[in-house]
Specification:
- By secondary structure, the protein is an alpha/beta fold.
- The protein has helices spanning 20-31, 43-53, 65-70, 86-98, 113-124, 138-144, 154-165, 185-214, 219-229, 237-247, 257-260, 270-281, 286-298, 301-309, 324-357, 363-369, 381-390, 401-424, 429-442, 448-459; strands at 13-16, 36-39, 59-61, 77-80, 104-107, 129-136, 147-150, 170-171, 174-175, 472-474, 482-484.
- A seven-stranded mixed sheet has the order 3-2-1-4-5-6-7, with helices on both faces. Strands 8-9 form a two-stranded antiparallel ribbon.
- α1 packs parallel to α6 (138-144), α8 packs across α13 (286-298) and α12 packs across α13.
- The longest helix has 34 residues, at 324-357.
């Protein structure tokens, strides 16, 4: 096979799996001065990479796993970029058998963190190292500089750190990569990153929906609004690309592209995993969960069609009766508030997961490495890092003095937007659920007291009292006396 480095020149890093993400990652390594070993199960993709991009740096191409492993310098380091699940397990098994003690296998895909914990134990039992590394930034990030979240043994980070830093995004001289914690910590953090991404995308979609069908604005006009927003405190990658999508015309019809795209959003599982894990940990990540449900509902096309054909009653639908410019500003502020809730809930889940699994994840590290390369990069991540610098034990991100001050200016517009959406008959599941979450946090009393009373009535589940310590039960089927358990 043609290759752009001699076999005697061993590679510093290897990439297995040369679809777009793996190919771009390999090119990124090569562009940054690393000799890169490359291997794909079907050699045609390996040949295509060398043919099309072999002049970008030093590559060593192999057609067998054994040759691939032999082309790596020790301790060998190989990143797997194949489909999650059985395909990943098969490659791990092949590499584990071909490698030696101390060599490092890195899974750069979107693996479920519990699978990573299992794999790390299995590989460690054979004397090899296993690192689950979350990589964010999509195809462009993989090529030009992603945000990387490696877990695994600290010893592996000492070897991997410099080479991963060479390809990561860089903000203010700081590479967007750091060791997250042991075993599954890296993939867990990447999972929650993607959950935040789901919520962020959904609230942006809800803002668009309000401007389009509430204020009667056309996509091109809304694109200009998003461009203006991106110059302020909403400055973020997702706001930036939203403006681009809304401004785009369909090449075939000339209609706004957003009107041509079927309104059914797909998902690959990471948002769903985030919601499931939030339930397992008992962390109320309501905005993230609602964003997952919103995608599921959008894809329930047969059910939606039946509901529209059956003409479900709408009740009285109001018309927008406020100044358009004022409404646009209210939506901007409500979007900012809901985005803050998404990040706050995500950091809550990471804190809970870190405590549950003993990872000792530092939120300041995440705010630092998410500033560049990744999909949820945003201007206010600098403020999030400052918040945790000032108080590493924040009960919730939104309790930081800076963010409390921001919310003081956002809360009234946020309420007005949720009310307006309800009156207009426009769904805003994340705007609304995030506001309810916010109000639940600040409420002096919640209806949970009644729920606990109900639980004690039908299941003798007991309750606590506000006026003294202990656990109590009412003899509901008897004389209704109070019993201390």
């Amino acid at each position: 096979m043609t290759q752009s480095a001699e076999k005697t020149d061993l590679a510093q890093i290897g990439v297995v799996g040369l679809a777009v993400m793996g190919s771009n990652l390999a090119r990124n390594f090569a562009r940054n001065g690393n000799t890169v070993a490359v291997y794909n199960r079907s050699p045609e993709k390996t040949r295509a990479l060398i043919s099309e991009h072999g002049d970008e740096g030093a590559f060593i191409a192999s057609e067998t796993v054994e040759d691939f492993v032999a082309s790596l310098e020790r301790p060998r380091k190989a990143i797997i970029m194949v489909k999650a699940g059985a395909a990943t397990d098969a490659v791990i098994e092949q590499l584990t058998e071909a490698m030696d003690e101390g060599d490092i296998i890195i899974d750069g895909g979107n693996a479920l963190f519990t699978d990573t914990i299992r794999r790390e134990k299995e590989v460690a039992a054979k004397g090899r190292h296993f690192v689950g590394a979350g990589i964010s930034g999509g195809e462009v990030g993989a090529l030009n500089g992603p945000s990387i979240m490696p877990g695994g043994p600290a010893e592996s980070w000492e070897t991997l750190g410099p080479i991963l830093e060479s390809i990561a995004a860089n903000v203010d001289g700081t590479p967007c990569v750091t060791h997250i914690g042991p075993d599954g910590a890296g993939h867990f953090v990447k999972m929650v990153h993607n959950g935040i991404e789901y919520a962020d995308m959904q609230v942006i979609g809800e803002a668009y929906q309000l401007l389009r069908y509430g204020a009667g604005m056309e996509p091109a006009e809304i694109a200009e609004v998003f461009r203006e927003w991106n110059a302020g405190d909403l400055d973020s990658y997702l706001i930036e690309i939203t403006a681009e999508v809304l401004a785009q015309k369909d090449p075939e019809t000339g209609a706004p592209l957003v009107d041509v795209i079927v309104d059914a959003a797909g998902q690959k599982g990471t948002g769903r995993w985030t919601a499931i894990n939030g339930l397992e940990l008992g962390v109320p990540i309501t905005g993230i969960a609602e964003s997952v449900f919103a995608r599921a509902l959008s894809s329930a096309t047969a059910q939606r069609a039946a509901a529209q054909e059956g003409q479900l009653p709408s009740g009285t639908i109001a018309e927008l009766n406020v100044d358009k410019a004022e409404f646009v500003e209210d939506v901007r502020r409500a979007l900012y508030a809901a985005k803050l809730i998404a990040y706050s809930q995500g950091f809550d889940e990471i804190k809970a997961g870190s405590e549950e699994f003993g990872w000792n994840v530092d939120p300041r590290d995440l705010a630092t490495i998410w500033r560049g390369g990744c999909i949820i990069r945003a201007k206010f991540l600098d403020r999030i890092r400052e918040a945790y610098d000032n108080n590493a034990d924040l009960p919730a991100l939104i309790l930081d003095p800076y963010f409390k001050g921001e919310l003081e200016n956002l809360i009234d517009p946020w309420r007005r937007v949720v009310v307006a959406a309800t009156q207009l008959g426009l769904p805003v599941p994340v705007f609304a659920s995030s506001l309810s979450y916010y109000d639940s946090l600040r409420a002096e009393r919640l209806p949970a007291a009644l729920i606990q009373g109900q639980r004690d009535f039908f299941g003798a589940h007991t309750f606590k009292r506000v006026d003294r310590e202990g656990t109590f039960h009412i003899e509901w089927s008897g004389d209704r006396s109070l019993t201390e358990m």
